[in-house]
Amino acid sequence: MNDTLITVPGQKNVKEWVQEVAALCQPDEIHWCDGSRKENDRLCRLMEESGTFIRLDPEKRPNSFYCRSDPDDVARVEDKTFICSLRKEDAGPTNNWRDPKEMREELIGLFGGCMKGRTMYVIPFSMGPLGSPISEIGVEITDSPYVVVNMRIMTRIGQEVLDLLGDGPFIPCLHTVGAPLQPGEKDVPWPSNKETKYIVHFPEERSIWSYGSGYGGNALLGKKCLALRIASVIAREEGWMAEHMLILGVESPEGEKTYVAAAFPSACGKTNFAMLIPPEPLNGWKITTIGDDIAWIKPGKNGRLYAINPEAGFFGVAPGTSDKSNPNAMASLGENTIFTNVALTPDGDVWWEDMTDEPPPKLTDWRGRDWTPDCGRPAAHPNARFTAPAAQCPSIDPDWDNPEGVPISAFIFGGRRSATVPLVSQAFNWSHGVYLAATMGSEKTAAAAGKVGEVRTDPMAMLPFCGYHMGDYFNHWLNIGRNLPNPPRIFMVNWFRKDEDGKFLWPGFGENMRVLEWIVQRVHGKAYALECPLGWIPRYKDVDWTGRDDFPFEKFEALMSVDREMWIEEARQHEAFFLKLFDRLPKEFTNERELLISRLWRSPGVWHLASEVHE
User: Which of the listed residues 81, 135, 448, 495 has the most CB atoms within 10 Å of its CB?
Assistant: First the structure.
């Protein structure tokens, strides 16, 4: 091995780690990634030659590529994702745990010689703007060029990161597809390990090891692994927050700018909300996008919380994304984009379910087979993805890359609930809001494992992503609020309530601006609200209905009603979930649950907006 390939002046700690990994993994070559366009073009050509990439029509999608993964490697492997804290109780009952010593021994056995016949790529990357006090630096080692070109879009990579790092600390992220090549062995377009996959986090060491998968968050270790599971541990220790949240800016017709962060589980319209376009009658309002998936939030010197999007790109689910549901997302995909597991059109473009009203007459599906609309199978995988630079989004905020972050005035939480939860409510105070966010749930859809309609509790949409005990996580949220003179207001929303015929009561998409407008006005003390058992809610006349004369008071009342018996049952489910976390559950939660039940018992059987508020 040529030592000059791993000599990086001034990077002693990184160099030593790279040498140790190279000795273990035994790659044929080592390449230090500089993040340049020239390097990216070379790797894309390399993957075209290997059959991993298909270049899309440059007239339709300049500098964009199509890719199919192995059918056994299409999504995050949650059952093989581990938090290897020193003590099992620190990982908590909602995480998979393994003894760190035993796991490391097993991983060393797996990683031994795992990169034979391949190039080892060293990717220095910054999560967040370079030099930001809210950013963190990591170094990912991988044997996958697919990971390199995706990380170039999703993070800031290259020599500038190494220069900024100097001899400082970094988060080591080690990844392999787990498919070494013997001399003369022909590679496959999507190398992975069919038998063994591990996504392992060592929170005390702040390190990540990933084996066997080349897909998504399993391999792009800056994303869920670092930005949430490891960062959540760092955030608790250092007094900040790493959250599974979008960040958007709301500008009023008068030019007043307000930033909010929002957390929704999957299939709840998160990306659509981040890139919301107000309906035409409300076009005096403007929405700008900071990020669609992750927020790092730190207290500022003035007692406010400031947030950055630690990512530099969008790694979004393609199916369901269209010009109708999210025109800003579609406009972001015009060039410099990687499409994985979507369908390929005969003229060198891409397609997926719901992209157009009518599907094309003929496609090549995500498994490389001929596809027609009547063939009885989806053209794109349900978890098919696009990787696109955030800077290409038409709604991107001018301050999306500001190292200081943007000030957060409100947190919004929501899930998919066909009944029970009203359209919008505001928590009475910080403790009450944290309780509501900790108990939020979402109904499983037909695409998810389990019984359709069953409510799955997903606190703050963080259940799969918190790197430590959820009880400690709730306490951390409470402590953040205690130390702020004026913490952000907390709101709950539900776009998915249905009527007796099973039809959605709320139109959603751009119409969500009407709810967001009331939220922003509440933040600034400009909007009225009524008290209900769940919090503060708007009256019918507190919502701007300009252009929606077809939305009567009766329909709004149905959206906002609170059924006492349903909520008593909801409180029982809260208790069942809390019993799993009882040894570390905040005492405040017991009090909040009792207060909730007390308010419910004092309310009528079904709490309705009083008819006189329609005046």
Answer: 495
